[in-house]
Amino acid sequence: MKILVLNAGSSSQKSCLYEIADDHLPNEPPQPLWSGKVNWTQDRGVAEIEVKTATGAVLQESIYGDSRQAHVAYMLYSLSRGTTKVVGHLSEIDVVGHRVVHGGQQYRKSVVITEEVKKTIGNLSSLAPAHNPAALEGIEAIEQSLGDVTQVAVFDTGFHATLPEAAAIYPGPYEWVEQGIRRYGFHGISHQYCSHRAAQILQRDLASLRLITCHLGNGCSLAAVKNGNSIDTTMGFTPLDGLMMGSRSGSVDPGILIYLLRQSNYSAERLDYVLNKASGLRGISGVSSDLPQVIEAIAQGNYRAQLAWDMYVHHLRSGIGSMLPSLGGLDALVFTAGVGEKSAGIRQAACEAFGFLGLKIDPAKNQQQPIDEDIATPDSAVRVLVIRTQEDWAIAQQCWQLMPTK
Protein backbone atom coordinates (compact mmCIF):
# COMPACT_ATOMS: atom_id res chain seq x y z
CA MET A 1 0.00 0.00 0.00
CA LYS A 2 1.38 3.40 -1.01
CA ILE A 3 0.50 6.15 1.46
CA LEU A 4 1.18 9.83 0.77
CA VAL A 5 1.28 12.15 3.78
CA LEU A 6 0.83 15.95 3.69
CA ASN A 7 1.76 18.01 6.74
CA ALA A 8 0.66 21.61 6.29
CA GLY A 9 2.22 24.51 8.17
CA SER A 10 1.38 28.20 7.95
CA SER A 11 4.31 28.83 5.59
CA SER A 12 5.19 25.36 4.33
CA GLN A 13 3.72 22.13 2.99
CA LYS A 14 5.72 18.98 3.75
CA SER A 15 4.99 15.63 2.16
CA CYS A 16 6.34 12.08 2.07
CA LEU A 17 5.47 8.73 0.50
CA TYR A 18 5.55 5.43 2.38
CA GLU A 19 5.12 1.93 1.03
CA ILE A 20 3.67 -0.51 3.58
CA ALA A 21 2.69 -4.15 3.20
CA ASP A 22 -1.09 -4.61 3.06
CA ASP A 23 -1.12 -7.23 5.82
CA HIS A 24 1.00 -5.73 8.63
CA LEU A 25 2.59 -2.53 9.94
CA PRO A 26 6.34 -2.60 10.65
CA ASN A 27 7.39 -2.06 14.28
CA GLU A 28 10.07 0.47 13.35
CA PRO A 29 9.25 3.62 11.33
CA PRO A 30 10.44 2.94 7.76
CA GLN A 31 12.29 5.48 5.64
CA PRO A 32 9.94 7.19 3.17
CA LEU A 33 10.49 6.45 -0.52
CA TRP A 34 10.19 10.17 -1.28
CA SER A 35 9.89 13.38 0.69
CA GLY A 36 9.15 16.90 -0.48
CA LYS A 37 8.72 20.38 0.94
CA VAL A 38 7.35 23.63 -0.39
CA ASN A 39 8.49 26.69 1.57
CA TRP A 40 6.81 30.09 1.24
CA THR A 41 8.92 31.95 3.81
CA GLN A 42 10.90 33.96 1.25
CA ASP A 43 9.53 36.68 -1.05
CA ARG A 44 5.82 36.67 -1.71
CA GLY A 45 5.01 34.78 -4.88
CA VAL A 46 8.11 32.56 -4.66
CA ALA A 47 8.04 28.93 -3.55
CA GLU A 48 11.22 27.08 -2.64
CA ILE A 49 10.73 23.41 -3.53
CA GLU A 50 12.99 20.67 -2.22
CA VAL A 51 12.52 16.96 -2.97
CA LYS A 52 14.60 13.96 -1.85
CA THR A 53 14.28 10.23 -2.46
CA ALA A 54 15.46 7.23 -0.46
CA THR A 55 18.00 6.52 -3.20
CA GLY A 56 19.63 9.94 -2.82
CA ALA A 57 18.10 11.89 -5.73
CA VAL A 58 17.55 15.58 -4.96
CA LEU A 59 15.52 18.33 -6.65
CA GLN A 60 15.73 22.00 -5.61
CA GLU A 61 13.83 24.70 -7.47
CA SER A 62 12.33 28.14 -6.99
CA ILE A 63 8.85 28.45 -8.52
CA TYR A 64 7.20 31.81 -9.17
CA GLY A 65 3.48 32.63 -9.06
CA ASP A 66 0.89 33.17 -6.34
CA SER A 67 -0.99 29.85 -6.54
CA ARG A 68 0.05 27.77 -3.53
CA GLN A 69 -2.09 24.93 -4.90
CA ALA A 70 -0.07 24.96 -8.12
CA HIS A 71 3.18 24.91 -6.14
CA VAL A 72 2.03 21.82 -4.21
CA ALA A 73 0.90 20.17 -7.45
CA TYR A 74 4.35 20.79 -8.94
CA MET A 75 5.99 19.14 -5.94
CA LEU A 76 3.66 16.13 -6.28
CA TYR A 77 4.44 15.74 -10.00
CA SER A 78 8.06 15.03 -9.01
CA LEU A 79 6.80 11.72 -7.56
CA SER A 80 6.31 10.35 -11.07
CA ARG A 81 8.70 12.45 -13.19
CA GLY A 82 12.38 13.23 -13.59
CA THR A 83 15.23 12.11 -11.37
CA THR A 84 13.01 11.94 -8.24
CA LYS A 85 10.50 9.55 -9.85
CA VAL A 86 9.45 6.77 -7.45
CA VAL A 87 6.08 5.74 -8.96
CA GLY A 88 5.06 5.15 -12.57
CA HIS A 89 1.88 7.18 -12.15
CA LEU A 90 0.23 9.14 -9.33
CA SER A 91 -2.75 6.74 -9.56
CA GLU A 92 -0.56 4.13 -7.80
CA ILE A 93 -1.06 6.06 -4.54
CA ASP A 94 -3.75 4.30 -2.48
CA VAL A 95 -4.50 6.88 0.21
CA VAL A 96 -3.41 10.38 1.27
CA GLY A 97 -3.24 11.42 4.91
CA HIS A 98 -3.32 15.03 6.10
CA ARG A 99 -2.31 16.57 9.41
CA VAL A 100 -5.16 18.88 10.38
CA VAL A 101 -4.43 20.99 13.45
CA HIS A 102 -7.98 21.55 14.70
CA GLY A 103 -10.83 19.04 14.73
CA GLY A 104 -12.87 20.85 17.37
CA GLN A 105 -15.31 18.70 19.32
CA GLN A 106 -16.60 17.21 16.07
CA TYR A 107 -13.64 14.94 15.33
CA ARG A 108 -12.13 12.90 18.12
CA LYS A 109 -10.51 10.37 15.75
CA SER A 110 -9.09 10.28 12.24
CA VAL A 111 -11.73 10.29 9.48
CA VAL A 112 -12.00 9.72 5.74
CA ILE A 113 -12.44 13.15 4.15
CA THR A 114 -15.83 13.98 2.61
CA GLU A 115 -17.34 17.29 1.51
CA GLU A 116 -18.90 17.57 4.97
CA VAL A 117 -15.52 17.00 6.66
CA LYS A 118 -13.92 19.66 4.44
CA LYS A 119 -16.67 22.12 5.34
CA THR A 120 -16.17 21.48 9.07
CA ILE A 121 -12.37 21.88 8.79
CA GLY A 122 -13.06 25.21 7.06
CA ASN A 123 -15.51 26.28 9.77
CA LEU A 124 -12.90 25.51 12.42
CA SER A 125 -10.41 27.86 10.75
CA SER A 126 -11.38 30.58 13.23
CA LEU A 127 -9.75 28.39 15.93
CA ALA A 128 -6.63 27.63 13.84
CA PRO A 129 -6.37 30.46 11.28
CA ALA A 130 -2.74 29.75 10.37
CA HIS A 131 -3.16 26.00 9.86
CA ASN A 132 -6.65 24.71 8.96
CA PRO A 133 -6.86 26.77 5.73
CA ALA A 134 -3.40 25.42 4.75
CA ALA A 135 -4.63 21.85 5.32
CA LEU A 136 -7.64 22.55 3.09
CA GLU A 137 -5.30 23.83 0.38
CA GLY A 138 -3.45 20.53 0.56
CA ILE A 139 -6.66 18.51 0.35
CA GLU A 140 -7.77 20.48 -2.70
CA ALA A 141 -4.33 20.16 -4.33
CA ILE A 142 -4.62 16.37 -3.99
CA GLU A 143 -8.10 16.42 -5.53
CA GLN A 144 -6.65 18.36 -8.45
CA SER A 145 -3.59 16.12 -8.89
CA LEU A 146 -4.86 12.67 -7.92
CA GLY A 147 -8.61 12.85 -8.52
CA ASP A 148 -10.88 10.85 -6.22
CA VAL A 149 -8.18 9.04 -4.19
CA THR A 150 -9.18 8.31 -0.57
CA GLN A 151 -8.03 11.11 1.74
CA VAL A 152 -7.83 10.93 5.54
CA ALA A 153 -7.75 13.77 8.08
CA VAL A 154 -5.63 13.12 11.19
CA PHE A 155 -6.27 15.75 13.85
CA ASP A 156 -3.68 17.24 16.20
CA THR A 157 -6.45 17.80 18.75
CA GLY A 158 -7.79 14.23 18.49
CA PHE A 159 -5.48 12.56 21.03
CA HIS A 160 -6.59 15.02 23.71
CA ALA A 161 -10.30 14.26 23.26
CA THR A 162 -9.98 11.95 26.30
CA LEU A 163 -9.23 14.86 28.68
CA PRO A 164 -11.59 14.71 31.67
CA GLU A 165 -13.97 17.67 31.84
CA ALA A 166 -12.28 18.97 34.99
CA ALA A 167 -9.07 19.39 32.96
CA ALA A 168 -10.71 20.55 29.73
CA ILE A 169 -13.18 23.19 30.93
CA TYR A 170 -12.01 26.69 31.83
CA PRO A 171 -13.27 28.25 35.06
CA GLY A 172 -15.14 31.06 33.29
CA PRO A 173 -18.93 31.26 32.87
CA TYR A 174 -20.56 28.01 31.78
CA GLU A 175 -21.66 29.78 28.58
CA TRP A 176 -18.06 29.36 27.41
CA VAL A 177 -18.55 25.61 27.37
CA GLU A 178 -21.67 26.02 25.26
CA GLN A 179 -19.68 28.21 22.84
CA GLY A 180 -17.01 25.51 22.43
CA ILE A 181 -14.44 27.43 24.48
CA ARG A 182 -12.47 24.67 26.21
CA ARG A 183 -9.00 23.11 26.36
CA TYR A 184 -8.43 21.23 23.09
CA GLY A 185 -4.69 20.63 23.30
CA PHE A 186 -2.33 20.33 20.35
CA HIS A 187 0.73 18.33 19.18
CA GLY A 188 -1.55 15.33 19.72
CA ILE A 189 -0.13 13.31 16.82
CA SER A 190 3.36 13.70 18.31
CA HIS A 191 2.27 12.97 21.90
CA GLN A 192 0.38 9.86 20.78
CA TYR A 193 3.25 8.56 18.64
CA CYS A 194 5.80 9.11 21.43
CA SER A 195 3.58 7.35 23.97
CA HIS A 196 3.37 4.24 21.78
CA ARG A 197 7.08 4.39 20.97
CA ALA A 198 7.93 4.72 24.68
CA ALA A 199 6.00 1.51 25.42
CA GLN A 200 7.93 -0.24 22.62
CA ILE A 201 11.32 0.95 23.88
CA LEU A 202 10.51 -0.01 27.48
CA GLN A 203 8.92 -3.31 26.35
CA ARG A 204 5.87 -2.48 28.45
CA ASP A 205 2.15 -2.47 27.82
CA LEU A 206 1.13 1.16 27.14
CA ALA A 207 -2.01 0.59 29.23
CA SER A 208 0.21 0.08 32.30
CA LEU A 209 2.32 3.22 31.91
CA ARG A 210 2.17 6.71 33.42
CA LEU A 211 4.01 9.07 31.07
CA ILE A 212 4.72 12.76 30.70
CA THR A 213 5.61 13.56 27.09
CA CYS A 214 7.47 16.83 26.50
CA HIS A 215 7.12 18.14 22.93
CA LEU A 216 9.68 20.95 22.94
CA GLY A 217 10.16 22.71 19.62
CA ASN A 218 9.40 26.28 18.57
CA GLY A 219 5.99 25.43 20.01
CA CYS A 220 6.04 23.54 23.32
CA SER A 221 3.51 21.37 25.10
CA LEU A 222 3.33 18.61 27.69
CA ALA A 223 0.87 15.75 27.92
CA ALA A 224 0.09 13.50 30.87
CA VAL A 225 -0.64 10.05 29.43
CA LYS A 226 -2.22 7.35 31.60
CA ASN A 227 -3.26 3.94 30.26
CA GLY A 228 -2.56 5.25 26.74
CA ASN A 229 -4.95 8.22 27.11
CA SER A 230 -4.20 11.92 27.38
CA ILE A 231 -5.56 13.10 30.72
CA ASP A 232 -3.93 16.54 30.87
CA THR A 233 -2.03 18.86 28.53
CA THR A 234 -0.59 22.37 28.65
CA MET A 235 -1.83 23.90 25.38
CA GLY A 236 -5.45 24.96 25.59
CA PHE A 237 -8.16 26.58 23.50
CA THR A 238 -5.30 27.70 21.25
CA PRO A 239 -1.61 26.68 20.95
CA LEU A 240 -0.71 29.87 22.86
CA ASP A 241 -1.46 28.44 26.31
CA GLY A 242 0.92 26.64 28.63
CA LEU A 243 4.73 26.61 28.52
CA MET A 244 7.06 29.43 27.52
CA MET A 245 7.97 28.79 23.86
CA GLY A 246 10.22 30.08 21.09
CA SER A 247 8.24 33.23 20.33
CA ARG A 248 4.96 32.54 22.19
CA SER A 249 4.37 33.66 25.74
CA GLY A 250 2.53 30.62 27.03
CA SER A 251 0.26 31.23 30.02
CA VAL A 252 0.16 34.76 31.38
CA ASP A 253 -2.13 36.53 33.84
CA PRO A 254 -5.21 37.47 31.75
CA GLY A 255 -5.34 40.69 33.73
CA ILE A 256 -2.18 41.79 31.89
CA LEU A 257 -4.13 41.68 28.63
CA ILE A 258 -6.97 43.78 30.08
CA TYR A 259 -4.39 46.24 31.40
CA LEU A 260 -2.69 46.56 27.99
CA LEU A 261 -6.02 47.04 26.21
CA ARG A 262 -7.03 49.80 28.64
CA GLN A 263 -3.75 51.53 29.48
CA SER A 264 -1.60 51.07 26.37
CA ASN A 265 -4.31 51.17 23.70
CA TYR A 266 -3.38 47.76 22.35
CA SER A 267 -5.56 46.44 19.53
CA ALA A 268 -6.53 42.76 19.28
CA GLU A 269 -4.10 42.49 16.34
CA ARG A 270 -1.20 43.94 18.34
CA LEU A 271 -1.93 41.63 21.28
CA ASP A 272 -2.01 38.68 18.89
CA TYR A 273 1.37 39.66 17.42
CA VAL A 274 3.05 40.32 20.77
CA LEU A 275 1.85 37.08 22.39
CA ASN A 276 2.55 34.83 19.39
CA LYS A 277 5.56 36.42 17.69
CA ALA A 278 7.40 38.69 20.11
CA SER A 279 7.34 36.80 23.41
CA GLY A 280 8.91 33.63 24.81
CA LEU A 281 12.65 33.10 24.25
CA ARG A 282 12.68 35.82 21.57
CA GLY A 283 10.89 38.41 23.67
CA ILE A 284 12.91 37.90 26.85
CA SER A 285 16.36 37.33 25.32
CA GLY A 286 16.05 39.94 22.56
CA VAL A 287 18.27 37.55 20.59
CA SER A 288 16.23 34.81 18.93
CA SER A 289 13.43 32.29 19.30
CA ASP A 290 16.04 29.63 18.48
CA LEU A 291 17.49 28.04 21.62
CA PRO A 292 21.03 27.41 20.24
CA GLN A 293 21.36 31.14 19.47
CA VAL A 294 20.17 31.98 22.98
CA ILE A 295 22.80 29.58 24.39
CA GLU A 296 25.50 31.30 22.28
CA ALA A 297 24.45 34.65 23.73
CA ILE A 298 24.63 33.21 27.27
CA ALA A 299 28.24 32.16 26.60
CA GLN A 300 28.97 35.81 25.70
CA GLY A 301 27.58 36.98 29.03
CA ASN A 302 24.17 38.20 27.80
CA TYR A 303 22.01 38.68 30.92
CA ARG A 304 18.67 38.61 29.10
CA ALA A 305 19.60 35.39 27.30
CA GLN A 306 20.43 33.77 30.66
CA LEU A 307 17.11 35.02 32.05
CA ALA A 308 15.27 33.51 29.07
CA TRP A 309 16.96 30.14 29.71
CA ASP A 310 16.16 30.24 33.42
CA MET A 311 12.51 31.12 32.77
CA TYR A 312 12.17 28.41 30.11
CA VAL A 313 13.51 25.80 32.54
CA HIS A 314 11.32 27.09 35.39
CA HIS A 315 8.13 26.86 33.33
CA LEU A 316 9.07 23.42 32.00
CA ARG A 317 9.73 22.06 35.50
CA SER A 318 6.52 23.62 36.81
CA GLY A 319 4.51 22.10 33.96
CA ILE A 320 5.95 18.64 34.53
CA GLY A 321 5.35 18.90 38.27
CA SER A 322 1.73 19.99 37.80
CA MET A 323 0.94 16.74 35.98
CA LEU A 324 2.20 14.35 38.65
CA PRO A 325 -0.93 14.40 40.85
CA SER A 326 -3.25 13.49 37.95
CA LEU A 327 -1.00 10.57 37.01
CA GLY A 328 -0.47 9.40 40.60
CA GLY A 329 3.22 8.81 39.88
CA LEU A 330 5.54 8.62 36.90
CA ASP A 331 7.04 5.69 35.01
CA ALA A 332 8.78 7.64 32.23
CA LEU A 333 9.55 11.21 31.20
CA VAL A 334 9.78 11.57 27.41
CA PHE A 335 11.56 14.35 25.49
CA THR A 336 10.84 14.99 21.79
CA ALA A 337 10.83 17.61 18.97
CA GLY A 338 13.69 19.96 18.09
CA VAL A 339 14.71 21.13 21.57
CA GLY A 340 13.65 17.94 23.35
CA GLU A 341 15.66 15.75 20.98
CA LYS A 342 18.76 17.94 20.63
CA SER A 343 19.29 19.94 23.82
CA ALA A 344 21.12 17.88 26.44
CA GLY A 345 21.19 20.99 28.66
CA ILE A 346 17.41 21.37 28.75
CA ARG A 347 16.92 17.67 29.46
CA GLN A 348 19.49 17.81 32.27
CA ALA A 349 17.97 20.96 33.79
CA ALA A 350 14.43 19.56 33.63
CA CYS A 351 15.39 16.23 35.21
CA GLU A 352 17.48 17.70 38.03
CA ALA A 353 14.34 19.01 39.71
CA PHE A 354 12.84 15.52 40.05
CA GLY A 355 15.53 13.73 41.98
CA PHE A 356 13.01 13.49 44.85
CA LEU A 357 11.08 11.00 42.67
CA GLY A 358 14.17 8.85 42.38
CA LEU A 359 14.74 10.07 38.81
CA LYS A 360 18.41 9.87 37.84
CA ILE A 361 19.61 10.92 34.40
CA ASP A 362 22.86 9.43 33.07
CA PRO A 363 24.99 12.50 32.11
CA ALA A 364 27.12 10.55 29.63
CA LYS A 365 24.14 9.02 27.78
CA ASN A 366 22.41 12.41 27.78
CA GLN A 367 25.37 14.02 25.96
CA GLN A 368 25.61 11.35 23.23
CA GLN A 369 22.82 12.67 20.96
CA PRO A 370 20.49 9.80 21.89
CA ILE A 371 17.63 8.83 19.58
CA ASP A 372 14.87 6.49 20.78
CA GLU A 373 16.92 5.65 23.86
CA ASP A 374 16.55 5.47 27.63
CA ILE A 375 19.04 7.92 29.18
CA ALA A 376 18.23 7.22 32.85
CA THR A 377 20.70 5.39 35.08
CA PRO A 378 19.98 1.69 35.70
CA ASP A 379 18.83 2.39 39.26
CA SER A 380 16.57 5.35 38.35
CA ALA A 381 12.98 4.97 39.61
CA VAL A 382 11.76 6.89 36.53
CA ARG A 383 12.89 6.13 32.98
CA VAL A 384 13.96 9.10 30.82
CA LEU A 385 13.49 8.67 27.07
CA VAL A 386 14.57 10.74 24.10
CA ILE A 387 12.33 9.90 21.14
CA ARG A 388 12.49 11.28 17.62
CA THR A 389 8.91 12.24 16.88
CA GLN A 390 7.63 10.82 13.60
CA GLU A 391 4.36 12.64 12.94
CA ASP A 392 4.33 11.70 9.25
CA TRP A 393 4.72 8.02 10.07
CA ALA A 394 1.98 8.30 12.72
CA ILE A 395 -0.35 9.79 10.09
CA ALA A 396 0.54 6.96 7.66
CA GLN A 397 -0.30 4.41 10.37
CA GLN A 398 -3.73 6.00 10.86
CA CYS A 399 -4.36 5.84 7.12
CA TRP A 400 -3.33 2.18 6.94
CA GLN A 401 -5.70 1.34 9.80
CA LEU A 402 -8.65 3.11 8.13
CA MET A 403 -8.16 1.50 4.71
CA PRO A 404 -9.99 -1.75 3.95
CA THR A 405 -7.61 -4.65 3.36
CA LYS A 406 -7.08 -5.43 -0.30
From TrEMBL:
What protein family is recorded?
A: Belongs to the acetokinase family.
The record ties this protein, via Gene3D superfamilies, to:
3.30.420.40
Gene Ontology cellular component annotations, sorted alphabetically:
cytoplasm
Record-linked HAMAP family: Acetate_kinase (MF_00020)
Pathway assignment: Metabolic intermediate biosynthesis; acetyl-CoA biosynthesis; acetyl-CoA from acetate: step 1/2
Sorted alphabetically, the Gene Ontology BP terms of this entry are: acetate metabolic process; acetyl-CoA biosynthetic process
Source organism of the structure: Chrysosporum bergii ANA360D
Subcellular location as annotated: Cytoplasm
**For binding substrate, which residues are annotated in this chain's numbering?**
R99
Q: Which GO terms describe its molecular function?
A: acetate kinase activity; ATP binding; magnesium ion binding
Full protein name: Acetate kinase
Where ATP binds, per the record, is at K14, H215, L216, G217, N218, G219
**The record's free-text note on cofactor binding:** Mg(2+). Can also accept Mn(2+).
Query: What is the protein's quaternary organization?
Result: Homodimer.
Query: At what residues does the UniProt record annotate the site feature described as Transition state stabilizer?
Result: H187, R248
Q: What is its main location?
A: cytoplasm
Q: Which InterPro entries match?
A: Ac/propionate_kinase, Aliphatic_acid_kin_short-chain, Aliphatic_acid_kinase_CS, ATPase_NBD
Q: Which residues form the active site?
A: D156 (proton donor/acceptor)
Residue positions binding Mg(2+): N7, E391
What's a Pfam family in this record?
A: Acetate_kinase
Q: Might you give the EC number(s) for this enzyme?
A: 2.7.2.1
Q: Which UniProt keywords apply?
A: ATP-binding, Cytoplasm, Kinase, Magnesium, Metal-binding, Nucleotide-binding, Transferase
